[in-house]
Design a protein that fits this description.
66% of the residues lie in helices and 0% in strands. The chain has helices at 4-11, 20-27, 34-43, 45-50, 55-69, 74-81, 83-91, 96-107, 110-119, 123-126, 128-142, 149-163, 181-201, 206-210.
């Protein structure tokens, strides 16, 4: 189930859109894959925030995409989430070709396509900003003398895991690292974290550890 805080976080600057009615609508969904619909609604909310679709249009499109992810055909998903519209076409005697053309138009619409496009993007890419914020929290905890020694050590350890270089590289570029400012900065920050962690394990004073200097690398003479 979704709570008001989750909705507010998902909607960001549009948090004023959060209402008891919206919360009730999402939590009382009675359809196959209701949990997936709620998850997708939160995950792809940027489509709603940055677009012109209404809340109802967005929710309907999320339902449609969720059913597609579960293996439903375009027609099956459409007939479920837009049942009234589908039944109206049937009652008017539309043949399969005409019905299919309406369903295809909906599927190819910008709203559905934006959600479909986002659904193919790995979550780690969608939440890159949040990853940077999480790393910032680890840095603050690692150097905060007001938290326990264990919290500092755990934070330093987790930070090292997040910023370490990949163990293997699938693509190797034939370039020199000499003068690579970003690479040198990453190396220095990683080594600083390692020194801080080692100092904490050895019982070093947290104030001293927190202010350990960044050691610059001296370039070898050619």
């Amino acid at each position: 189930m979704i709570n008001a805080e989750q909705l507010a976080l998902a909607l960001g600057s549009k948090r004023s859109w959060v209402t008891d009615e919206l919360l009730q609508t999402l939590n009382e969904l009675e359809m196959d894959g209701a949990d997936l619909v709620r998850e997708n609604w939160l995950t792809h909310s940027s489509v709603l925030r940055e677009g012109t679709a209404s809340m109802e249009q967005y929710t309907t499109a999320v339902k449609y995409v969720s059913l597609k992810q579960m293996g439903h055909s375009n027609q099956s998903a459409y007939s479920i989430v837009l049942a009234d519209r589908y039944q109206e076409m049937v009652s008017k005697g539309y043949d399969e070709k005409r019905i299919s053309s309406h369903i295809s138009a909906y599927h190819k619409g910008s709203l559905v396509q934006k959600i479909l496009a986002q659904s193919t993007i790995p979550l780690w890419m969608l939440y890159q900003d949040e990853q940077h914020k999480a790393i910032g929290v680890l840095v603050r905890l690692m150097t905060d003398s007001n938290v326990s020694f264990k919290v500092q050590c755990d934070s330093a350890d987790k930070l090292l895991n997040h910023i370490k270089r990949p163990e293997t590289a699938k693509v190797e570029l034939d370039i020199t690292t000499r003068g690579d400012g970003m690479g040198e900065l990453q190396t220095m920050m990683r080594e600083l974290a390692e020194r801080q962690l080692k100092a904490l394990h050895n019982g070093g004073d947290v104030h001293v550890v927190a202010n350990l200097p960044v050691l610059e690398h001296t370039k070898e003479s050619t």
